[in-house]
Amino acid sequence: MLNILALVYRDQSKFKEASVLLNDALLIREKTLGSDHPAVAATLNNLAVLYGISSHLIQIKILLCPTISR
Fold first, then answer.
1. What is the DSSP letter of 37?
2. pLDDT tens digits, residue range 5-59?
3. Is the overall model pTM greater than 0.85, yes or no?
4. Within its chain, how far is the Cα of 54 from the centroid?
5. Taking CA 41 as the corner, what is the angle to CA 37 and CA 43, rounded to the nearest 5 degrees?
6. How far lies 69's CA from each of 20, 31, 62, in Å?
7. Do 18 and 6 meet the contact criterion of CB atoms below 8 Å apart?
8. For position 56, what pLDDT does the model report?
9. Burial class of residue 39 (count of CB atoms within 10 Å of its CB; 0-12, 13-18, 19+)
10. Do the beta carbons of residue 3 and residue 43 sit within 8 Å?
11. 34 phi and psi, to 5 degrees?
12. Which domain range does residue 62 map to?
């Protein structure tokens, strides 16, 4: 649910609120599902899209580098 609400905030250009929710969702999903679960990948993707929309290119690189090296 956090992930979905974050996407609503993203679509409303409420980037800070979306970022907080997506980061919370990521922590919960990693803890409960493990870092290799598709839901974790989906949340990482949503964060990357959010950072791209809000021009946070440094965060995109930090976020995706560990994923790419897997």
1. S
2. 999 999 998 989 999 999 999 999 999 999 999 999 999 999 989 988 877 666 6
3. no
4. 13
5. 115
6. 25, 20, 12
7. yes
8. 66
9. middle
10. yes
11. 95, 150
12. 2-68
Q: Of how many residues is the chain composed?
A: 70
Encoded tokens for 69: 């090296």
How many structural domains are present in the chain?
Answer: 1
Q: Angle at Cα 21 formed by Cα 49 and Cα 42, nearest 5°? A: 45
How far apart CA 41 and CA 30 sit, in angstroms, is 10
Instruction: Please name which of 33, 37, 39, 58 lies closest in space to residue 48, comparing C-alpha atoms.
Output: 58
**Cα distance between residue 34 and residue 52, in whole Å:** 25
Rounded distance between C-alpha atoms, residue 3 and residue 69, angstroms: 24
pLDDT at position 58, please?
65
